[in-house]
Amino acid sequence: MSELPLRVAGGVWRLNDKGECELKLAIHAGLHKTASSSFQFLCRAFEDKLLVEGICYPKYDRGENFSYLANALQRGKTDELEFVLRQAASEVSETDTVLISGEDFENCLIDHDLARALEDVAYRLGFDQLEWFFVYRNPLDYLKSIYGEMSKHNVCLNIEDVAGEIFENGYFCVENENYRYKFVFDFFQFFDSFSAVTNNNCEAIEYENFCAPFPGHEMLRRISLSEDYLNHIKRSEISKRKFNTRLTIEETEIRYALNALGIPFSQENWHENKSKLMPLVNGRIDSYNNLIPQIGEKFANLFDNGRAPGAANPKNVRKR
Q1: Which CATH number fits the domain 8-137+186-240, given the four candidates 3.90.550, 3.10.450, 3.40.630, 3.40.50?
Q2: Is 248 exposed, middle or buried (0-12, 13-18, 19+ CB in 10 A)?
Q3: CA-CA distance, 143 to 153, in Å (whole number)?
Q4: Which contiguous run of DSSP H or E holds residue 25?
Q5: Least confident of 90-104, 106-120, 135-149, 215-229
Q6: pLDDT class of 92 with cuts at 50, 70, 90
Q7: Rounded Cα distance, 238 and 163, in Å
Q8: Domain segments of the chain: what residues?
Q9: CA 194/CA 110 separation, integer angstroms
Q10: What's the DSSP call for residue 62?
Q11: Average pLDDT for the chain
Q12: How would residue 176 be classed by pLDDT, with cut points 50, 70 and 90?
């Protein structure tokens, strides 16, 4: 992008080996329930300072989460993505890296056409480099969190059915009126495949590493945020806040019971229906508690999310 002005970030010219400015796009693509909401809040809270440091977290009228762009791409619409990236690229005199974060881009691990659609738009608008970042966690912890989270999204899931789909495919799908979600559990199986189709322009970060000492620290470090400013964020009170924490299993099953009847969750609606729904809720809680240890054992045999990206996975013996 030789026609675009260069800038100094932290007193250092950010150039490629040919002495040219490179506009980069960093995509934080989840996974879901890996402190994405907290990271997005931090990026929005510090957006002005990040810009000075050479990282643009674009202004977006839908808030700090860019997942809607994935939703639009799934429907074949690129206009909003183009608008966001074009606006961000216009600020290249202020930055050399544009960062977007949306956990719904997790789908790209399976739906490579979705990833290609994003990359095609970015390269057409003049971005020189793209880098994908995925945060993964223990599969059983991930299941517990996703199972709780989806009860807020007007669907009704059964833990046994969800686990069965994961055993069979390494992921499970659920759809509501807004999006068809694909939640990845055999992470490295799909990450390695994604890496192959994106010319290895992707990185995996383990959940605990991503969160310490604050959500997103490791990713921001990898996209060259200065150590001084990382420490500045670390010292802030904002970095200690947590968002969208996991529901208890009772809270989860109450929502699923109401969802099954088409009743929106509220305390008032729950109290009105509690007497007839409580036996169902208690039965589902008992089933969940009985099945979770068995599911955990099967996950341990099927998935090896402790290995390094690209390494062989001898524990994965499922037939595809």
Answers
A1: 3.40.50
A2: exposed
A3: 16
A4: strand 24-28
A5: 90-104
A6: low
A7: 36
A8: 8-137+186-240
A9: 8
A10: T
A11: 88
A12: confident
Beta strands 97-101; 24-28: pairing state: parallel
Q: Is the pTM of this model over 0.70?
A: yes
Rounded CA gap, 84 and 52, in Å? 19
Q: Cα 101–104–105 angle (5° rounding)?
A: 70
Q: Encoding tokens for residue 68?
A: 């809607």
Query: Which one-letter amino acid corresponds to residue 247?
Result: L
Tokens 């310490």 sit on residue? 212
Name the one residue in this structure whose structure tokens are 């979770």.
Answer: 292
Closest CA to 43 of 27, 23, 32: 27
- 267: which 2 tokens? 């305390």
Residue 176 CB coordination number (10 Å)? 11
Q: Is there a contact between 241 and 41 (Cβ–Cβ < 8 Å)?
A: yes
Q: How far apart are CA 108 and CA 116, in angstroms?
A: 9
Report which of 140, 109, 142 is spatially closest to residue 35, judged by C-alpha positions.
142
Q: How many residues does the chain have?
A: 320
Residues 122/132, Cβ–Cβ less than 8 Å = no
- Name the nearest CA neighbour of 98 among 67, 55, 60: 55
**Closest Cα to residue 223, out of 63, 5, 39, 86?**
39
